[in-house]
Every structure is written in structure tokens, then in C-alpha cells.
């Protein structure tokens, strides 16, 4: 039987270590945060008359990390009061206290020998049954456990969080051949239900899933930029939201991650693979030159971009000088902006014969093929790969979902015409009449696997609204919202206006939902699965009314909204609001009169 995690310890108080400790505190778990003892006094410590034996000095690194937690943006702590759950210490004075905890997470420097030496000490002091894990971004989990006790090995695994731990959903769990299955099952459940993570089971291969594919994709993009003579700014202008990726796109992402961190992750694969794959992970010379200059990105003040006053400059990778930032605008880019839905936008881009289309095809095709090639090596199924990229890198579509979006048959024909090597399982899939990696029937999603479609195993505690609507009739809807039967005599009011902004359509649906629930249901949930819960009122509508001097109409709209909020407050049936991400203005006002807020 696995010990329930009630107390934890984090070894290493750097950005990731302190971030993980903060997230544990966020979910109410008392955490011991330890780091090494400084070997030299600072000038401030000398001025105070302190010595290397003073506790203030010995715990300096951890105390500094806690202070940074209070200042970091986005905030690692849900409430500053959560800091009280983090207790500080150091590796020399407090290591024995690891016997008090139920989970020990190692987050020290990415060096196998250092990690092994830490685990040797952990093995001496931990209680039998205590779970031990490493947050390594790609070092072999199996190698770290060499020489450890049998009980240690049974309770040891990789738990790879993504930075920042509070905000990025992905948690890769990497068991070894010795990890007890009950430990793996417990940590998966704990990760999902206590930590609120999207858990993906990964194999013990270099960089696991997300970093393996993500790093490959970033380096493919860099090389295509150099080959085609594109600028840093041009690449970022077409590799962000335009193709379903974060606003940080390519090079802003590298600046945020830190060039030193990225190169370390790339080298980890470079040193462990051979042939063409090895060359794919070779870091270009100009990036090595940036590293030597200390141009690491946000942490050093400059990287691929440099802010000067109000202007943001981009790096010229040939001269290593900064220039005004450029954007790439082509007919394909403009056409994609008019297309509805990400799938249609992607098709408009990757099959276009202009500079943007050519570039995007040349970086998309290799990533899709690389993902297919690695299936079975880094993960057992395509679902794990897609989820890892969505939850860890913020992609709207994983590689195989993206492949479906642009058309598997059409894209494979183009790849073959251009001389790409297609993994045999993909060509076999098409030859057998399977034309997509995913399909959906009556609200059940399926994925392709070894000659058949298999149902995707979902967390039964997670409701997928889109699939729910495929299974059940919508009670009522308009342009702004839909009322859906959730089952168990509970209804759901889903917002789906542009940006989930509140207009008269949503106000009407709030009132209708409350009346319907009072008659036929036990309760109402207000929530959705868009990018943001609600960005507030539809200001564009209000502006148009104001420009037409229709102030009476504005007053009526305000009164109607206020009355709807009072209807929520005094509803005889419970109303639960489930906000997330941006919950601004009117979105917050919807939360406040509810019976419960479940963020």
C-alpha cells in the first residue's frame, strides 16, 4: 500500500525547485525546501558580523528563493499566505528531516553524478515507503537509481514538471523497470486530482516526450530560418497564434526559457543519438556565440530580442547586431486570417506557395514525421504525444491532431513527392483505409493504434463540453451561450461568444437558465472550455451605442445585467461558477453572487 502524501520535501531551491515547492504549498501540502550551504559570505553578511556558521547564512539560498517567489510574475503562489507552508533548511543541517516526509523531489543541477550522490544520501535517511522522484528534464531515470536500495528503486520515478509549475498543465511521469506499479498509479492520480496536472506517461528516453519533440521543432525552425533568409521577427510573426501556438512563438519562447537551458536540453539528445537525428540536435554556431556573450534572453536582459525604450529590436543572426523588428505578411497569411477554425487556417498556410507558406510547410512536415518516427520509443500512443505538446508547450493541436487538420492523405502525398521518408506505420494506416489519426462518434473520441481505432481513455472526473453536446441535445442556445444537460439533474450554461464577452445574448441566457433550472433541475453550473472564462462586457457594443447617443439603451443593458446578477444571488437552486484564466469585469461579477466559486 502506497503512503499518502501529506508532507513533501524539495531538494534544490532554484527557479524550478522553488516553483514546485510553491505549487505544493498552493494545494495545502507542507513542504521542506533545502539547498546547499554557501561557502562565502556576501558583503552584507560581513557588514552584519555574520559567519558561515550563522543560520541566516547557511539558509541564504533558500531564503532568497522564497523572497523571489513573492516578486515573480506570473505569481507562483495563489496567495502569499501559502508561503507559511514552506519551511527552509539546507543540505548539511536538515537532510535528516527527509525522514519526516512522504515525497522527496530532487531538483538539483542537471548532472547525473551530482544527482546520484544526492540520492545516495537520500537513501540513507528516507523512511521505507517514501516516494522519491527527480524533476530532471531528460537525464536517464534508470541511471539515477543505480546502486540504490530495493525499497528506494520500488518507490523511485521521474516527475517532470514544466515551468512555471503553477501554470503549465503537463506533468510527465517516467517510471523505471523497478518502480512499483502501485506507486505509478498513485502518483498519476495524485498528479491529476491533487496537483491539478495533466499527467502523461513517458518512457525513459532522452528528454522524454515534450522536450524531445519541442526542441527538435525549435531547431528545425532555426535552420529553416537560416536556410531561407528569414529574420527572427518574421519567424515569430508566423509561428505563434497564427498556427495555434503561444504568443511567444519561437524566439520569444527561447528568450523566456533561457538560451543556456535550451542548449543544455538540446545537447542532452545530441550526445545520445546518432546519424541524421544527431545533426538535427546540433546547436547552430550563432547560438553558441550568443551563449558565450551571455545573451541568454529575459534573464540576462537580451537574447533574440532587445528592448530599447519603447522599441523592441530583433537580433540579426548573421551580424549579431540588433535591428528593428520585422513581420512577414504574405497573401497566405492574410487568407488564413479570414479562414474559420484552426484547421482551415493551417491548410491555407502550409499548402500556399509564398514565403510564409513555404516556411511553415518546411517546419511542419519534419515535426510530424519525427513525432511519428518516435511513436513507441518515447510514448505508447499518439494521444500521449499530442497531450504532452499541448500541455507542455501550449500548442492548440498536438502533432497528430495537426496532421489530421491539414489532411493526412494530402500531406503524405506532398511529403512523398518531396522525398521525405514516411514511417511505415503511417503508410500502412492509409493503405488500410484509415485516413485520420482521430475520429469521434456519438461523443466518444477514438485514436488510431495498430490497425484499429481505440477509445481515448479520459479522466472520468473531467467533462468535455464539446463531446457532451454530441451525446445530448442542447436545451437552448443563442449566439452567446448554450444551456446543456450535464446529467445528475444538473445543467450547464456555456458561454461561447467571441472572447466570451458579455452581451445581451448571454444575459438573456443567464435568465433563461435560472428559470429552467428552477423548474426542472437541482442546480446550475456556469462554465466553459474556451481560452478565458469571460473577458467582461462587450465593450464594442457599448461603444457603438454611445457613438449613436443611445445612452438609454446602455442604461437598459446595465440594468438587465444587474438584474441577472441578482437572479443568480437569489436563485432557489445552487449556482456554481467555474472561472479560469481571464475573469474580468462582468466575468468577476457573475462569480460574486453565486452559491460557490470553483476556480
Describe this structure in words.
By secondary structure, the protein is of the alpha/beta class. The protein folds into 3 domains: 8-201, Rossmann fold, CATH 3.40.50.720; 210-419, N-(1-d-carboxylethyl)-l-norvaline Dehydrogenase, domain 2, CATH 1.10.1040; 467-597, 2-enoyl-CoA Hydratase, Chain A, domain 1 (Alpha-Beta Complex). Helices cover 44% and strands 15% of the residues. The strands form 4 sheets. Strands 3-2-1-4-5-6-7-8 form an 8-stranded mixed β-sheet, sandwiched between helices. The longest helix has 20 residues, at 355-374.
Shape: globular
**Main β-sheet: number of strands, strand sense, barrel status?**
8 strands, mixed
Helix content: 40-55%
User: What is the tally of beta strands?
Assistant: 20
CATH architectural designation of the largest domain: Orthogonal Bundle
**Domains (count):** 3
CATH class of the largest domain: Mainly Alpha
Query: The CATH topology of the largest domain, please?
Result: N-(1-d-carboxylethyl)-l-norvaline Dehydrogenase, domain 2
Between the first and last Cα atoms, what is the distance in angstroms?
A: 32 Å
The number of distinct helices, counting runs of at least 4 residues, comes to 26
